[in-house]
Amino acid sequence: MFRKILIANRGEIAVRIIRTCKEMGIKTVAIYSEADEDSIHVHMADEAICIGPAPSRKSYLNMENIISAALVTKADAIHPGYGFLSEDKDLVDACIKNNIKFIGPNKEHLEIMGDKAQARKAMIDAGVPVVPGSKEATNDAHKAFEMAKDIGYPIMIKASNGGGGRGMRIVHNEDEFISKFNMAKSESMAAFNDDMMYLEKFIEKPRHIEFQILADSHGNIIHLGERDCSLQRRNQKVLEEAPCSIINESLRKKMGEVALRAARAVNYVSAGTIEFLLDKDKNFYFIEMNTRIQVEHPITEQITGVDLIKEQIKIAYGEKLDLVQDDIRINGHSIECRINAEDPEKNFMPSPGKIERYFAPGGYGIRVDSHIYEDYIIPPNYDSMIGKLIVWGANRNEAINRMKRALDELVIIGIKTNVDFQKEILNNEEFIQNKIDTSFIEKVLFSENK
User: Fold this and answer.
1) CA 266, CA 260: separation in Å to the nearest integer?
2) pLDDT tier for residue 257 given thresholds of 50, 70 and 90
3) Is residue 126 assigned to a domain?
4) I need a labelling partner for 115 at 20 to 30 A (CA). Which of 158, 187, 297, 375 fits?
5) Would you state the pLDDT for residue 449?
6) Mean pLDDT over residues 360-374, rounded?
């Protein structure tokens, strides 16, 4: 097994990876920016090394400094977590050149599945159902306008090499197409240094369903069921559940088999996520693959008992999966609330600053993945997520009630958070009755507050 792993990330995911490494007897190296000197992951790791000033481009996106840190500390592997360089094929190349193992898929997987237009083509060739859309990517608004005529409105414009909700626009008619295309293109260039776009038919009121997969280098592949990630604000996930309560065993088997087919089509190796849209008639369509560990991976761990980070590390080392598909049993229901340092009353404006008081909830079925502590100063330089509150229940109703209790116990004073907003979701009658889709927050919750 690996002797030492450098975690090329920060915050709660760095803490999460360090914990599993400790349990596996693997030494860890934390990297940190000058703004993160007091972050808890720095103190939990066996070694820590500063890689640059606060701005991400000078630290967590500084590939040269990250590789140098791995060489100096003699780490034999790098775990990228999520975000930052987790899906950067150049980092994979740099690792190979320096005899360091990248804990994730290979470069070819990142190239194919990281480019949404290429991924669509690969899935079509493999017989995987995809949302109707453009056959190729383009940065020409007028060419895209002609493509849109064939697809039909409403249309979703997406960044070909994007993610996280950036570079996306919904277009309802021809009159607004050109302006929205150019806005999405500009946003994509700013976020991803790439302005190639592609078009998809906009599926109205779908659920966003993703299947977690694990695939080793020996040809073994399994899925671990699905997560329902429909509760989103501006294409950013807010609350996730596993499993999806409207999917029965027959549909789960069918979707799971398609997810495995999608991964096999590119000979995928590592942990990954196949994402679908599920319409009101239970038709499902592939939308993308995430070639990394997901923020919401803990809810899958809670219902399957599988440590996904551990499996990811073992796969990267070349080990065979210990599990087969029949070993996977879904037990109970899990919910994750993302806890963000932001002010919902001011359009979710980030709220960095000092945490004056902090108390984490506890008790049966509750897990907190976070890097914050009392007197910790949240820097203004990074994503506003400061933790994840995860609960398990024997069923969905028990999980909802347990999450309500956990949120009531959670104390974070000194900054603004979205805790009350999460409570509002959990107390909403339509949410309780499981009448949700990707428009829930914008159309239901916000309309009630007007």
Assistant:
1) 10
2) very high
3) no
4) 297
5) 59
6) 98
Residues 40-57 have pLDDT tens digits of 999 999 999 999 999 999
Q: Is the same domain home to 442 and 310?
A: yes
Q: For this structure, is 396 an active site residue?
A: no
Separation of alpha carbons 272 and 255, rounded Å: 15
134 to 138, 163, 381, 435: CA distances (angstroms): 9, 18, 36, 31
Query: How far apart are the C-alpha atoms of 273 and 315, rounded to whole Å?
Result: 15
Q: Are residues 196 and 211 in the same domain?
A: no
Whether residue 350 sits in one domain with residue 233: yes
Domain count, the chain: 3
CA dihedral 161→165→167→170, nearest 10 degrees, is 120
Q: Which H or E element spans position 254?
A: helix 249-265
Given the residues 10, 207, 233, 292, the one annotated as active site: 292
Residues 263, 288, single domain; the answer is yes
Q: Judge if 376 and 260 occupy the same domain.
A: yes
Domain with residue 79: its CATH number is: 3.40.50.20
Q: Which two tokens stand for residue 90?
A: 């150049």
Q: Which of 88, 103, 118 is the last residue of a domain?
A: 103
Residue 83, domain extent: 4-103
Res 120: pLDDT: 83
Angle between helices 177-192 and 141-151 in degrees, nearest 10: 120
Q: For the whole model, what pTM was predicted?
A: 0.90
- Same domain for 382 and 233, yes or no, is yes
Residue with tokens 């109205």: 204
Angle, CA 252 vertex, CA 249 and CA 257 arms, to 5° = 125
* Closest C-alpha to 339, from 296, 370, 297: 370
Last residue of a domain, one of 201, 225, 249: 201
Q: Are residues 137 and 87 in the same domain?
A: no
pLDDT above 90 as % of the chain: 87
CA distances 226 to 219, 330, 339, 348, 395, Å, are 22, 10, 22, 29, 15
- Please tell me whether residue 315 adopts helix, strand or coil conformation: helix
Residues 343 and 220 in one domain: yes
Pick from 335, 274, 261, 257: which is nearest to 300 by CA? 335
The answer to whether 79 and 13 are in contact (CB under 8 A) is no
Look up residue 127 and give its DSSP letter: T
Rounded Cα distance between 308 and 297, Å, is: 7
Which neighbouring-strand residues pair with 146? none
Q: Is residue 113 part of a domain?
A: no
Residue 256 has pLDDT above 60, yes or no: yes
